[in-house]
Amino acid sequence: MILSEYIDHTLLSPTATIDDIKTLCKEAILHNFYAICVNGSHVKLAKQELRNSNIRIAAVVGFPLGASTVATKVFEAKEAINNGADEIDMVINIGLLKSNDFDAITEEIKIIKSSIGNNILKVIFENCYLNNNDIKKACKASIIGKADFIKTSTGFGTNGATKEDVILMKKEVGEAIKIKASGGIKDHKTALEYINLGISRIGTSSGIKIITNN
Fold first, then answer.
1. Kind and range of the H or E element at 91?
2. Under a CB-based contact definition with an 8 Å cutoff, are residues 166 and 152 in contact?
3. What is the pLDDT of residue 1?
């Protein structure tokens, strides 16, 4: 196992500067992370900085609240792909999920996945606001909607990834869909624990610390 290949090296701070994004890209190349994850406005810059590498670019959509309209999320996703993103990390409409509008959240995922073609779609649940039943419904909707990944958290909610939630998500989706754990994963030991639970990707701003075990 190569730990760096699990890492989405992430910088989503509203105060991230051009120099910060350039540094993120340089670090991703140096440590051979799988991808970087940035806000949509930074995708063009990241694409330029990563032009001679195999590092993928993930862009967030509907971030961090998930409350944008479907049309807005589709526009964001398409623009990010057109600007050079390879993957989309989209926040689910949490309010509709909590309202038990299963058809609406399923359709949202389906439409956004369709709009980006063969590019990877990760659906962010924001588990800190959800109960187990909500998580189960979001898992089912993500499978029906043809998402590629489900993701625990934005990192901007009241809590990040938990092992209990990942165990539940894995139980619900099996091998049908991959899982990304994000939020609060800051050290080597914790990263390995999540990998052993069956996740395929880790979203973190602590990637260097994780892989160097410092």
1. strand 87-91
2. yes
3. 82
